Amino acid sequence: MQQFPFNFNDLPTPAYLVGGWVRDRILNRQGKYLDLDFVLPEKAVEIANAIARKYKAGFVVLDAERQIARVVFKNGTADFAQQMGDSLEADLGRRDFCMNAIALECHELNETDFVPLAQNQFIDPFNGIEDLQARRIRMVAPENLADDPLRILRGYRQATQLGFEIESLTRQVLIKLAPKLKAMAAERVRTELGYLLSIENGSQGMMAAIDDRILEDWLPSQYLNLERFAKIENVISTLIAKSPNLESFFNKQLSGDRYTLVIIKLAALTNSATALESLGLSRAEQRWLVGILRYLPQFIKILDQASLKEQYKFFQSTLEFFPAIAALAIASGCELEEISPWLERWLDPQDAIAYPVALITGDDLRKDLGIAPSPKIGELLEMVKIAQVEGKISSRQDAIEFVIALHSNEILKAKTP
User: Fold this and answer.
1) Helix or strand or coil: residue 26?
2) Helical (H) or strand (E) element with 165
3) The pLDDT of residue 408 is above 80
4) What is the DSSP letter of 141?
């Protein structure tokens, strides 16, 4: 059971809960992490700061001009915004969708009161509750979407998240306003796309936005591989069901609050890493994206005929993100049965091909064999690894004898006229 992180009696009367939490409360949806939004008639930042001090929580001013501040608790965040306009109804009238323009006077609740409320306890000037019952997303006003075009993407994300339909007129407005997304900061667009691709069935929401040409300025259609992208979510689910240990790979953080799942889906979506440059990906994300797209064709080519040496060399180049390449290969038409042995190698830290244990080191070559420091040492060590994965040697002594033979042959060749 959720619990509010502070006592609402610390707030003045009136103080209103608005937005997503109220919407989800009506839908009986509950997440592990509380995300609360409050509207106060006055002194929003001052009140937020006082609550942060009382509860020893984090505090940050998000927008000094519009008087918006955030208090960060262990189990959630609470944003406090000063009412815009001369009434609560005017404030709600500035919001994106009617289902998000519902308010509740927070003193109606206590710290643990999550029982259903009567409909007349909600302030709903735009019939948002009716939209929730009809499972539709309807705009409050076109100008609200035009004022913040990121709300266009948010509409597709929330439709996917809730399993709702975007009302016809609203969808027409979203499509008409889509060119305004071009002026949005890359960070905001990237973040919203990350939210969309992270949720269940996020790929379907992305496909809907692409079909409506919402993202044409950010993801030009000529660079997209929609057939592969349409399959990637099911492929990942299948791989995790078959090998549950892969779940931690697909759900690990790669950059900030963004996960590998997002960059893998973006790699499945595009045929060219340069097509996503406008999103301003982090270095780690860019490295994964470039690596996945670079090695995918090579993997498909060698998949069913790779020698042990070729498998070793491929793993050394792709070990960090190999399951992503495997997922894209399956989404590209390769059979899971062909790829499973490769994944089993990657999943086994004792596998002699994917994770060969070094039999000797560069220090061994310098100290025991008297080989002078040079690039040659790296070449010899690589030849030892290849002989090891091919089963020609299996111990340190084997490796030393192998290097002596190699080195002697090279010295002999050098002396031969």
Assistant:
1) helix
2) strand 165-166
3) no
4) -
Phi-psi region of 318 (alpha: psi -120 to 50; beta: other; left: phi over 0): alpha
**Alpha-carbon dihedral 268, 158, 146, 212, rounded to 10 degrees:** 40
Residue type, 42: E
Crossing angle for the helix pair 260-269 and 186-198, nearest 10 degrees? Answer: 100
Output the CA torsion 71→74→76→81 (10° steps).
-10
- Written as six digits, the tokens of 49 are 């700061």
Residue 123's DSSP bridge partners are: 103
- Report residue 166 as tokens: 């975007």
- The CA distance from 160 to 166, in Å, is 10
**Do 345 and 311 touch, CB atoms closer than 8 A?**
yes
Report pLDDT digits (tens) over 51-87. Answer: 999 999 999 999 999 999 999 999 899 999 999 999 9
CA distances from 62 to 3, 56, 78 (A): 25, 19, 12
Helix ranges restricted to H, 305-368? 308-318, 322-331, 336-347, 362-367
Cβ contact 288:280 at 8 Å:
no
Is the separation of the CB atoms in 120 and 129 below 8 Å? Answer: no
DSSP calls for 218-236: TS-GGGB-HHHHHHHHHHH
Cα(394)–Cα(391) distance, integer angstroms: 7
d(CA 167, CA 214): 16
d(CA 191, CA 182): 15
**What pLDDT shows up at residue 416?**
41
3-class secondary-structure state, position 76: strand
Whole-angstrom distance, CA of residue 295 vs CA of residue 309: 16
218-260 pLDDT, tens digit each: 998 899 999 999 999 999 999 999 999 999 999 998 877 778 9
CA–CA gap between residue 293 and residue 276 (Å, rounded): 12
Whole-angstrom distance, CA of residue 177 vs CA of residue 179: 6
Q: For residues 359 and 399, is the Cβ–Cβ distance under 8 A? A: yes
Mean per-residue pLDDT, 12-35: 90
CA-based nearest residue to 28, from 140, 101, 133: 133
In angstroms, how far is CA 128 from the centroid of its own chain? 30
For 219, the token pair is 């993801």
DSSP 116: -
CA distance 76 to 79: 10
